[in-house]
Amino acid sequence: MTVFDEKTLVCRAVAGDVGAFNELLKEIGGKLFSFALSICGGNRGIAEDIYQEALLKAFVSIGKFEGKSSFSTWIWMIIKNSYIDFLTENKKLVSLENIENFEPSSDISAELELVREDRAKMLRKLISELPVPYSEVITLIDLQEMEHSEAAELLGIDKNLLKVRLFRARNALEKMVRANIEFFK
What we know:
Blueprint: H1 3-14, H2 18-39, H3 44-60, H4 71-90, H5 110-129, H6 132-143, H7 148-155, H8 159-179, H9 181-184
């Protein structure tokens, strides 16, 4: 989608065009859900709830969108805030029981695929155990492959602070992986 198309669709959505809102979600919905899944530590059930709640909030408040950021950044922030609200309401860590399963590749043995799946689950679990500011930057930069400037804008922090957090988050994650190295061998 070009920037012009997104701006046009956003203008139409702000004016009340439901179809334009749906078109925007068709373009970015996959990335948005992936973000929700990542910040929820891979818990698909919780991610779906947060994603749906965030989309409802975005739909209801689209008229308040001022265009100070991209539309996707605006919704990312709603998803992030919905997750923080969820944590506050539940005051517990996210359960990792419903981690999304990966489709096995036909050219890799089933055993190797299971090992990869287990490692991915463990890595998501470790990321979810990091302090929230660290898990956010790891999720946005390393898992979602977001640009530093966009991630800093989404988190409402300076780009230099983002880089510091990312460095510290990667170091903390590395220590956690080393502490569980037998699992990753």
